[in-house]
Amino acid sequence: MSQISQVRSSQAQSSQALSRDDLARAFAAIALEAGAAIMQVYAKGCEARMKDDRSPVTEADEIAEAIILERLAALVPDVPVVAEECAAKGILPDVGSRFILVDPLDGTKEFLNRNGEFTVNIALIENGKPVVGCVFAPAVDTLYAGGDTAWRVQHGVESEISTRDYPAEGLTALCSRSHPDPKSEAFLANYAIADRREAGSSLKFCRVAEGAADVYPRFGPTMEWDVAAGHAVLAAAGGKVLMPDGAPFLYGKTDSGFKNVAFVAWGQGEPAAS
Fold this sequence. Notes:
With 274 residues, the protein is α+β, with helices and mostly antiparallel strands. The chain has helices at residues 3-7, 20-44, 59-75, 84-88, 108-113, 182-188, 203-209, 224-236, and strands at residues 49-50, 56-57, 81-83, 98-106, 119-126, 129-137, 142-146, 150-154, 157-160, 171-176, 193-199, 215-218, 240-242, 263-266. The protein has 8 helices and 14 strands.
């Protein structure tokens, strides 16, 4: 049975009756459908256009976002949705304490470079915190989701995930493949780092969530829809996302157009500096 058929039935339930885990499974069904559409474009190839912010957009981004918005409108019609491509066109809803963030194709550069490390991201925000999230990497058939618990579905096999205790020999740090960040390297110099690894898109949060790494700092520019779903999965797996000074990292920054400040994703909270 496909991942889509396994979780699609969740969408038929009343959103008011859904637990956080049920809602994560409903998000997963939507992400799987959008991911299938992305892979059709991936197979035939496409050209990128540059948006006003000089970031690339493709046919796959737009098709995936249309699918996600339609499905979310049926699933949670009263919850406003902030989606990347709509936002790029100036289409932004009024948001309150509860809203959804969507990145239909996180890692467009990875998509264009055909390295497989691109994802579909959907997250529910409540009172500034991501409480439900789904990250689907269609090219590698791996899905991460989190609500009250966190899990991974890889090649049809589902397993619970959690962050790991920090290794005595030092932390494994994740770095962005497409966006090298000297400030992040300077931050990591304060800690005992045993290994550094690269990963694309929001998969960096998921690597920490599943215990494959311990810390992911990001001082370069990001948008809320880039990171909210991965943050939700990580939080459900026992991790934290904090500002560099240790303050909570929150969402709903409407005054800045949903632009993020620097953050650090930790598997077990901030350790003592070395």
